[in-house]
Design goal:
The protein is an alpha+beta fold. It contains three helices and four strands.
């Protein structure tokens, strides 16, 4: 019997570190990432959602991104990108303090 994992990550150095962890722990349900300065949030989210969709990570359902510049405008941009590119169908996205929470079914 396999266990599902909840995984928390802070302070990653490269996006490849996140992909490695996802490959190494395919049953994680929750991923928490501290955003790296000067990284494009839209590009990061687009790429990670493509990886999730293409590799069928069936357990991962919640992504939390810690970013000090998180605000309602950023949420609107990310929401529009997800909808326009059909990256997720049934999801919610919201901001609490410096965290962006993206949850999907």
């Amino acid at each position: 019997m396999q266990r599902k994992l909840n995984m928390f990550i802070w302070k990653r150095h490269k996006i490849q570190d996140t992909y490695f962890l996802m490959t190494f722990c395919p049953q994680m349900e929750y991923l928490n990432v501290e955003f790296i300065k000067n990284m494009n949030i839209e590009l990061f989210l687009r790429n990670i959602l493509h990886v999730i969709n293409n590799n069928r990570y069936e357990y991962l359902r919640l992504l939390c991104i810690y970013i000090t510049k998180a605000d309602d405008q950023m949420i609107k941009r990310l929401n529009k990108m997800i909808d326009d590119e059909k990256l997720l169908l049934d999801y919610t996205i919201h901001c609490e303090l410096y965290n962006i929470y993206l949850k999907w079914k």
